[in-house]
Amino acid sequence: MIHEERFDELVNYYTDDAILVIKPGTIVRGRNKIKSAFVKIAEYFDNSIKPIEGKMLYLIAGDTVLVLAQTFLEASEQAKEKSEFSMERRATYVFRNIEGKWFCAIDNSYGTDLVE
């Protein structure tokens, strides 16, 4: 959805108080700030970025799930060259079930790399 610039639709998959890790040391909180961040991320990658999920592991406890995911970022060659971050990641996401629907509460595409 990010490469299609469907930002309004994209943020509807997040909780109102969700956190998005933009890069190590930089996070935003809430749908409006997440939307603004995705607009900037799309621009940074010349609107060519497309996340692809590889292997995933779901750890569910009641209304919460921790998702460990192999994530690949596809982008134009020019956009890849200017990025200082890996295009292959071990992401961690936390989802919450609210009224029967799963919403992302924490979106961390850097996973445990944040603690390095």
In short:
The protein has 3 helices and 6 strands, in the order αββαββαββ.
How would you summarize the topology of this molecule?
Elements lengths: L6 H5 L2 E10 L2 E4 L1 H14 L5 E12 L2 E11 L2 H6 L5 E11 L2 E8 L8
Parallel strand pairs: 1-6
Antiparallel strand pairs: 1-2, 3-4, 4-5, 5-6
Return Rg in Å. 14 Å
Share of β-strand residues: over 45%
Runs with pLDDT <50, length 5+?
none
Number of strands: 6
| Quaternary | single chain
Order of helices and strands: HEEHEEHEE
Shape: globular
* Neighbour order of strands in the largest sheet: 2-1-6-5-4-3
Supply the helix-strand structural class.
alpha+beta
Biggest beta sheet attributes:
6 strands, mixed
Mean pLDDT: 86
Instruction: Give the fraction of residues assigned to helices.
Output: 10-25%
Number of helices: 3
Ends distance: 30 Å
Report on the structure:
With 116 residues, this protein is α+β, with helices and mostly antiparallel strands. Helices cover 22% and strands 48% of the residues.
Key structural traits:
116 residues; 6 strands; globular
